[in-house]
């Protein structure tokens, strides 16, 4: 569960390929070139041939984060995770329910795949939790799930950048913290409700930042990626 030191800002940035086709993803990856080494594939691209594309990225020396947020009966989760481990993925997400987390850790076996537990989605706030029937606050729910994940031995946590400082305190120095909801200064927040800049997210304790639209929708994706990496470097230098 211990993370190796992450000294290169490239290792910290994960570009979200939230695109509708493999062709669109291939175009963005080509435009990003060597400026990006780590990509996330979620439902949209995954269900449009993205797992085959993930194999290609891995074969080309890139790292891949499969963000399907698995949550099902234990046997199904374990088998699904075993398949992702065989794919060669670096990260995979599950929802932070104890049975699901235990099954995922069983399914990955001795592979280097790292299981990340999703606490509360960054598009949720207190009103969303209340509507879903949760009486606890966002902060209380995140804390409970992080403690459970730590006790199970999960490899890392996905949380909003605004939760990263508290998550690091609860999680301890071991385990990765991966934060979506990262927006450079001036970028639209879109459907994210709990956001922070790359600089602030790293300073808060995040290890990896997931950035999608501010990079893939940019007229110059490589320049946008380098700008995020520059903020990461500045935050690391200030630590």
TrEMBL record:
The keyword Acyltransferase does not apply. Gene3D superfamilies: Aldolase class I (3.20.20.70). Catalyzes the decarboxylation of orotidine 5'-monophosphate (OMP) to uridine 5'-monophosphate (UMP). SMART domains: OMPdecase (SM00934). Its EC number is 4.1.1.23. GO terms for molecular function: orotidine-5'-phosphate decarboxylase activity. HAMAP family: OMPdecase_type1_B (MF_01200_B). Residues 12-228 form the Orotidine 5'-phosphate decarboxylase domain. It is an enzyme of class 4 (lyase). It catalyses: orotidine 5'-phosphate + H(+) = UMP + CO2. The active site is at 69 (proton donor). The gene is pyrF. PROSITE patterns: OMPDECASE. It comes from Ancylobacter radicis. This is Orotidine 5'-phosphate decarboxylase. Keywords: Decarboxylase, Lyase, Pyrimidine biosynthesis. Belongs to the OMP decarboxylase family. Type 1 subfamily. Pathway: Pyrimidine metabolism; UMP biosynthesis via de novo pathway; UMP from orotate: step 2/2. Substrate binds at residues 18, 40, 67-76, 122, 183, 192, 212-213. Homodimer.
């Amino acid at each position: 569960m211990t993370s190796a030191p992450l000294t290169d800002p490239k290792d910290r940035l994960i570009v979200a390929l939230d695109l509708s086709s493999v062709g669109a993803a291939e175009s963005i990856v080509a435009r990003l070139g060597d400026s990006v080494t780590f990509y996330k594939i979620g439902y949209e691209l995954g269900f449009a041939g993205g797992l085959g594309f993930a194999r290609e990225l891995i074969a080309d020396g890139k790292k891949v984060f499969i963000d399907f947020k698995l949550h099902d009966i234990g046997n199904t989760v374990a088998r699904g995770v075993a398949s992702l481990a065989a794919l060669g993925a670096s990260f995979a997400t599950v929802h932070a329910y104890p049975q699901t987390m235990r099954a995922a850790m069983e399914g990955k076996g001795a592979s280097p795949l790292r299981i990340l537990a999703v606490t509360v989605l960054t598009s949720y706030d207190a009103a969303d939790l209340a509507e879903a029937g949760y009486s606890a606050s966002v902060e209380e729910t995140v804390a409970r799930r992080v403690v459970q994940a730590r006790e199970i031995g999960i490899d890392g946590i996905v949380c909003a950048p605004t939760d990263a400082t508290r998550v690091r305190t609860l999680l301890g120095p071991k385990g990765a913290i991966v934060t979506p909801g990262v927006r450079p200064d001036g970028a639209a927040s879109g459907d994210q409700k709990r956001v922070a800049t790359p600089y602030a997210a790293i300073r808060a304790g995040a290890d990896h930042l997931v950035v999608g639209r501010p990079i893939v929708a940019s007229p110059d994706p490589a320049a946008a990626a380098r700008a995020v990496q520059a903020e990461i470097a500045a935050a690391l230098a200030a630590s």
